[in-house]
């Protein structure tokens, strides 16, 4: 969280504090929803995910702030795949809940644009 | 800390301009776990990148938008929603300006909806203000 806050220029000291109520910046959800959250896509050989892609759009809904010590359960779903000829648009939703209570914490929805030609 | 009653549609939050050099992209790759070679390998990027070279992570630009919004709001818990629509590619080394403008106020929920952006010097819309939003709850 600290490294993310520094890499993205968040200046609030609560993101980088050594102790106390250490919070995650809103954008930190990227670290557990984008690459890690969608990691199963790369191991599913039938899906055909490859690195010739760009990130089209990304949405986050926050139900509460993320804190140091949180244990989140993140469940990715492919909610849509659209063929646009030379590219395919894949929408990945990741529902992140508090692992202890099941309460929603962050909902992520991202669209990845895969080009047909592999690198 | 901004207050709802002081807000007017058209208000802007403080802008920030940052230069995204290769070290910054590598730092973001390490922090986020996004090691797509498009963001660090010129040979790979030369084959697939829309600019013919290394480009910044869309999510690094969204992350800096998060910083501009959350630092203004004063508390990450006030940010209820953040969306980014990635349009123009952002070449490594580019100077990018980040900002936001209030486009809607909801008096009942005491929330402000902002159009947010990350733009290149030449006007390239890296995070496109026409479809990128932050919803912030204010006192």
Account of the 3D structure:
The complex is a heterodimer of chains A (119) and B (139). Chain A is mainly beta and 119 residues long. In chain A, 12% of the residues lie in helices and 39% in strands. Chain A has helices at 2-7, 30-33, 40-43, and strands spanning 53-62, 72-83, 87-98, 104-115. A 4-stranded antiparallel beta sheet of chain A has the order 1-4-3-2, with no helix packed on it. In chain A, strand 2 (72-83) and strand 3 form a beta hairpin. The two termini of chain A are 32 Å apart. The mean pLDDT of chain A is 92. Chain B is built from 3 helices and 6 strands. Chain B has helices at 22-32, 42-48, 58-73, and strands at 12-19, 79-85, 95-106, 111-120, 125-127, 133-137. Chain B is elongated, with a radius of gyration of 16 Å. Strand 1 (53-62) of chain A pairs antiparallel with strand 2 of chain B.
Cα shape of chain A: elongated
Radius of gyration of chain A: 16 Å
Look at the structure and give the mean pLDDT of chain A: 92
Measure the end-to-end span of chain A.
32 Å
Portion of residues in helices of chain A? 10-25%
Flag low-confidence runs of chain A.
none
Structural class of chain A: mainly beta
N-to-C span of chain B: 9 Å
Q: Please, what is the average pLDDT of chain B?
A: 96
- Based on Cα principal axes, name the global outline of chain B: elongated
- In N-to-C order, the SSE pattern of chain A is HHHEEEE
Question: What is the rounded Rg of chain B?
Answer: 16 Å
Helix count from the secondary structure assignment of chain B: 3
Q: Quick one: how many beta strands of chain A?
A: 4
Number of H/I helices of chain A: 3
Largest sheet features of chain A: 4 strands, antiparallel
Beta-strand share of residues of chain A: 35-45%
What's the helix-strand series of chain B?
A: EHHHEEEEE
Query: What multimeric state do the chains show?
Result: heterodimer
The helix/strand class of chain B is alpha+beta
Fraction of residues in H or I helices of chain B: 10-25%
């Amino acid at each position: 969280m600290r490294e993310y806050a520094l890499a993205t220029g968040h200046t609030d000291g609560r993101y980088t504090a050594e102790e106390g109520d250490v919070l995650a910046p809103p954008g930190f959800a990227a670290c557990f929803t984008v690459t890690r959250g969608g990691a199963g896509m790369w191991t599913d050989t039938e899906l055909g995910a490859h690195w010739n892609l760009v990130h089209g759009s990304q949405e986050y809904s926050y139900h509460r702030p993320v804190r140091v010590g949180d244990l989140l359960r993140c469940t990715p779903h492919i909610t849509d795949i659209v063929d646009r000829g030379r590219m395919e648009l894949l929408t990945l939703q990741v529902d992140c809940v508090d692992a202890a209570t099941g309460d929603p914490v962050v909902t992520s929805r991202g669209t990845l644009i895969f080009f047909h030609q592999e690198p | 800390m901004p207050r709802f009653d002081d807000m007017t549609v058209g208000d802007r939050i403080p802008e920030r301009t940052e230069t995204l050099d290769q070290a910054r992209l590598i730092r973001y790759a390490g922090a986020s776990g996004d090691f797509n070679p498009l963001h660090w390998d010129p040979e790979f990027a030369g084959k697939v990148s829309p600019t013919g070279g290394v480009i910044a992570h869309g999510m690094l630009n969204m992350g800096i938008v998060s910083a501009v919004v959350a630092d203004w709001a004063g508390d990450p818990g006030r940010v209820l929603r953040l969306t980014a629509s990635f349009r123009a590619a952002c070449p490594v080394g580019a100077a990018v300006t980040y900002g936001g403008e209030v486009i809607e106020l909801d008096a009942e929920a005491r929330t402000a909806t902002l159009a947010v952006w990350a733009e290149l010097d030449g006007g390239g819309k890296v995070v496109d203000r026409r479809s990128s939003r932050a919803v912030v709850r204010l006192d």
